[in-house]
């Protein structure tokens, strides 16, 4: 069976205040219960506070975004002449290069440095623009690492977004292991084959596109060129969250593998659980547990390697809530 915990814990960068470091402008922190109680056992953290790193002290004068929401500046709230846009952006670019062993990044929301979206951008009238912006450090970092799974801590409280983000972190880690072992045409095709049903659940359209990309690969094509292109498209595709409808479709496909092994009564029971999942009566883990039971009883090598069945360790309990 595909085992996401077979390797060492994936490393995730995280806004330092979320891990309990007292690095905020007021000397406080924003320790995240979610990160510290549910996620900490499964990941190694790399805490980063860009404001402290560029030399703003603790405590310090607060800063905020101003100007064009698409391209805001970061200035002191009390002293608008203190402009730290450049240092924060430079530090973001630097960390994007230095943090080369991370498989994801959890950012603090609403921050003019770390926020990913909807950060208030103040206008000359003293009020924020209707459209929010992105923190200067986060914008520079993400521009350099477009394939890296990133999310705001606040959004991780949504079980669907949390499950999606953690799945992408493990997929990213899986790809790093593939690269370490050596990228070849065969390795690329085998990787895609393992991600078939996860892709089908998250993004059926991209599933077909990526299948075509590899299906038309010729013997003389260089995997070193196609591989990064494939992975980039895969990571973009997996950002879309699976719905009950697309999960239901995948569950139907998976149940088809057992149609000759199961009795009519077993098939009816499995179908009933898939229907109940699609109606929102039971979580995804319920029909999946029965499918995995049948997979142990009637092993199928192709199904056993599917990342969809185990995109992250069971002990995270992520599919109990979606
Ligand atoms: S949000 Fe970012 S810059 Fe602000 S205290 Fe937390 S880590 Fe530091």
Helices and strands, with pairings:
Layout: E1 11-15, H1 33-39, E2 44-48, H2 50-53, E3 63-66, E4 73-76, H3 85-98, E5 102-107, E6 121-122, H4 136-144, E7 150-152, H5 159-181, H6 185-194, H7 196-202, H8 204-215, H9 223-238, H10 244-256, H11 264-278, H12 285-297, H13 301-304
Parallel strand pairs: 1-2, 1-5, 3-6, 5-7
Antiparallel strand pairs: 3-4
Helix pairs in contact: 3-4, 7-8, 7-10, 8-9, 10-11, 11-12
Textual characterization of the structure:
This protein is α/β, with parallel strands linked by helices. It has two domains: 11-157, no CATH class; 159-322, no CATH class. The chain contains 13 helices and seven strands. The strands form two sheets. It has a four-stranded parallel sheet with strand order 2-1-5-7. A three-stranded mixed sheet has the order 4-3-6, with no helix packed on it. Helix 1 (33-39) links the parallel strand 1 and strand 2. Bound molecules: iron/sulfur cluster. The site of iron/sulfur cluster has 12 residues, from helix 2.
State the gist of this model.
The chain has 322 residues and is α/β, with parallel strands linked by helices. 46% of the residues lie in helices and 9% in strands.
Beta strands, count: 7
Order of helices and strands: EHEHEEHEEHEHHHHHHHHH
Q: Class by helix and strand content?
A: alpha/beta
Rough outline:
elongated
Binned strand content = 5-15%
| Structure ligands | iron/sulfur cluster
Give Rg in angstroms: 22 Å
First and last CA, distance:
22 Å
For the largest sheet, list the strands in their spatial order.
2-1-5-7
Chain-averaged pLDDT: 96
Q: Please describe the biggest sheet, giving its number of strands, its sense, and whether it closes into a barrel.
A: 4 strands, parallel
Number of domains: 2
Total DSSP helices: 13
Helical percentage: 40-55%
Residue stretches low in confidence (pLDDT < 50, at least 5 long) are none
